[in-house]
Amino acid sequence: MAYSSDRCEIRNIEELEGVLSEPTDATIRTMGALEGDLVVLGVGGKMGPTLARMAKTASDLAGVKRRVIGVSRFSGASKLEEKLQSWGVETHRCDLLDLSSYDRLPEAANVVYMAGMKFGSTGQESLTWAMNTFVPGLVCERYRNSRIAVFSTGNVYGLSPIHRGGSIESDPLHPAGEYAESCLGRERIFEHFSRAYKIELSILRLNYAVEFRYGVLLDIAQKVFSEQAVPLRMGHFNAIWQADASAMSLQALSHASTPPLVINITGPELLSVARVAQQFGELFQKEVRFEGAESGDALLNNAQKAFQLFGYPRTAIGRILPWIAGWVEQGGETLEKPTHFENRSGDF
């Protein structure tokens, strides 16, 4: 293979999850300085399991005896509960739309809020709004004495001109579509209760976490490998290796404030869909086809504020491309959840 010298040595899911859970020194220091247990609400999502494991690992390395508890419906036949428990993460089954379940949620001084709905929101708009705006109010009532880091999305900014280099935290918000609108609603509910109850809170506008099993890079790689046309309508994007996103998100707990700290989390690169596709074409030794034309704007974040607080990501996107190429070529397991990154209307 043309990229054999850059091949990632991650050979299976177990090794991948270990790498995605490896804390930075700064995360270890953060977990060492924080007091109290940590609850991860919505731990069953794409980032949740390895973020929870990272929090537990960092706490152990810092010499802090801390319960890390993952909360999810844990529906279906998945063995996620067993996996989390093997990592030292406790589990708690809960449907966050069930009001009667909140009294049974474990106490914790620190909360990472990862619950929400994106894919499938079109056609289920009422459920999307319930999950993204109603549940946050219930969580604030239950954890009004806790410190909370809330996952949000850069979609709340709307499309940003390429030449600006990405939206910053003080920019006006112009969400497109009910998903992004409901995410802004989530932020506003958390902000209200942060002010009303003096909850220390961080809002994390993430664009986009990637790893081998999902993300924009995987979507592009799969299209190139299967010789499908790569759409150029959303011609540029940001991305960050999931482990770096998790590390920054956990560190954000120590910067929580009232009113909330709002912070973009992404990588420093402004990535071109066409250029990334061409790089995958070189790695796969395949010709790349495109469809559509690039627009002058895209969903883009500028994360300089995060870099000032947390430092730059450990893993550059250019280093990840050959890893993902190798994973795709060997038929590695994926989550089969395309990001629909090319969607400009906001319908998911």
Q: Could you explain how this protein is built, in words?
A:
Helices cover 37% and strands 15% of the residues. It has 348 residues and is of the alpha/beta class. The strands form five sheets. It has a seven-stranded parallel beta sheet, with helices on both faces. A two-stranded antiparallel ribbon has the order 6-15. It is globular, with a radius of gyration of 19 Å.
In short:
Helix content is 37%, strand content 15%. It has helices spanning 13-20, 25-33, 48-61, 80-86, 125-142, 177-197, 216-225, 242-251, 273-284, 304-310, 317-329, and strands spanning 38-41, 68-72, 90-93, 110-113, 147-153, 160-161, 201-206, 209-210, 230-231, 236-237, 240-241, 261-265, 271-272, 290-291, 297-298.
